[in-house]
Amino acid sequence: MSRHIQQIQQHRTDTEMQRPPENFPLHGGRGPGDGTVVISITEHPKDHIVWSMFNIICGNPLCLGLLAFYFSVKARDRKMLGDLEGARSYGSTACCVNGWALALIITSVIICIIIVAVVASSVSHISSSYNSYGYPYRNRYGY
To answer: CA torsion sign, 53 to 57 to 63 to 64?
Structure first.
């Protein structure tokens, strides 16, 4: 009887060795060791230094481009030192300041285009009201 129990236990351990555990992650079911290995790589924080340089060169409204460049350099320094949380914080601040600087640059360009269009329109209207001799155009009623 004890020999029979030993055979059952031996058979049970042999089948458990052949079959992978049920909760084995990403296992293809072929055999032990044939599964996919997943390595999570932490993404390095962005420093937005190119965007900051663009804002410095293309307008630098209220010195926001320079401030964004400062935070971008700080983020890059923190990343080089291995302080990823500090780099993420400085990078986020640089992104926010860059966004505001870009919004001000776009707004000022639109305002300049509107001013040029209005001035060109008024100049063309004024120039059409003068005759070829440079005198204001008047009809025969004096208006």
So the answer is: negative
DSSP 63: G
Burial class (CB in 10 A: 0-12, 13-18, 19+), 89: middle
Q: Model confidence over 37-56: pLDDT tens digits?
A: 677 777 889 999 999 999 99
- Predicted TM-score (pTM) of the model is 0.61
Instruction: Give the C-alpha separation, 106 to 78, whole Å.
Output: 31
Tell me the C-alpha distance between 86 and 126, whole Å.
60
Report d(CA 58, CA 108) in Å as an integer. 11
What's the DSSP call for residue 16?
Answer: H
Asked whether the beta carbons of 129 and 137 are under 8 A apart, the reply is yes
Distance CA 97, CA 106 (A): 14
Residue given tokens 């965007």 in the structure block: 51
Helix 49-57 to helix 64-81 angle (10° resolution) is: 160
Q: Which of 104, 95, 103 is nearest to 52 (CA)?
A: 95
